[in-house]
Amino acid sequence: MDITKFIPLWIIYLSDMKFFIDTANLDQIREAHDLGVLDGVTTNPSLMAKEGIKGTENQYKHYVEICNIVNGDVSAEVISTDYDGMVREGEELAALNEHIVVKLPCTADGIRAVKYFAGKGIRTNCTLVFSIGQALLAAKAGATYVSPFVGRLDDISEDGTGLIRDIVEMYNYYGYNTMVLAASIRHTRHIIDCLKAGADVATCPLAAIKGLLNHPLTDSGLARFLEDYHRVNG
Ligand code: E4P
User: Fold this and answer.
1) Is 90 exposed, middle or buried (0-12, 13-18, 19+ CB in 10 A)?
2) Which residues partner with 42 through β-bridges?
3) Probe ligand 1: pick from 22, 66, 179, max atoms within 8 Å of CB?
4) CA–CA dist 52, 177 (Å, integer)
5) What Å distances lie between residue 19 and 13, 93, 129, 185, CA to CA?
6) Of 112, 39, 102, nearest to 69 (Cα)?
7) Which of 66, 61, 149, 63 is nearest to 105 (CA)?
8) Ligand 1 site, residue 151, Cβ cutoff 6 A
9) What is the separation, in whole angstroms, between the first and last Cα of the chain?
10) What's the half-sphere exposure (Cβ side, CA atoms, 13 Å) at 183?
11) CA distance linking residue 205 with residue 188, whole number of Å
């Protein structure tokens, strides 16, 4: 029996899709925040390097600056690849600010670390996920977010948004609370496809978020409204 028939739609679709920005650039984070629709930020070591931030102390300061701009979750990724190092680093990162989510790679040590942090009530983002099996392990370990990389799968002719759809269906079927955070979003179309696939969050470059605004009928419609106003009002 399909029980969803007896549940009002407003209960099923109560949570909205969240937008994170995928950058460590403070100006871009501020611009997305000022748009009024930003729910969080994801970073990774490549994005931090792109901003030229060197050394642990500077990196930690940078994470705090990001947290001071955004009133939402900020993923900060560990560099360690062994369990003990991940736990030590993750605890340092989590202590920086209440908004920090510890980002851990989907490896055996990473999954163990996710489990450890779940036990301590520290939120995690299990990253570098490319298969439904990896997403299952992340959820079983208690990850807060799982990050399947849509664009990188598309790059090798696989179906990135298809993976998002499969993971959403699997989590719903088994009742996992882990949120599906669609990552490696390259353009606006990816955002639309991920929301249709039921992703809880899309983390996107600023240009892809702003691309959602673009429609030629909005531009021509606004031009016509203003033209008509000025024709009558001078
Ligand atoms: C997000 O958490 C990922 O680090 C990021 O989206 C990767 O994106 P890329 O494939 O464009 O590098």
Assistant:
1) buried
2) 22, 75
3) 22
4) 36
5) 16, 22, 19, 11
6) 39
7) 149
8) yes
9) 64
10) 24
11) 9
Q: Which residue has the tokens 């470059």?
A: 205
Which of 135, 197, 118, 126 has the alpha carbon at shortest distance from 171? 135
Which candidate in 103, 140, 196, 210 is catalytic? Answer: 103
Q: What is the pLDDT of residues 212-221, one digit of tens each?
A: 999 999 999 9
Q: Which amino acid is at 188?
A: T
**Phi-psi domain of 198 (left: phi exceeds 0; alpha: psi -120 through 50; beta: other):** left
Number of neighbouring beta carbons within 10 Å of residue 57: 8
Select from 126, 179, 184, 201 the residue to mutate for testing ligand 1; criterion: most ligand atoms less than 8 Å from CB: 184
Residue 215, both tokens: 């429609």
Q: Is-catalytic flag, 210?
A: no
Say how many Å lie between the CA of residue 103 and the centre of ligand 1. 12
pTM over 0.85: yes
- Residues 129 and 147 sit within 8 Å (Cβ to Cβ): yes
pLDDT at 147 over 80: yes
The three-class DSSP label of residue 216 is helix
Instruction: Please state the rounded mean pLDDT for residues 75-95.
Output: 98
Question: Which residue puts its alpha carbon closest to atom 10 of ligand 1?
Answer: 184
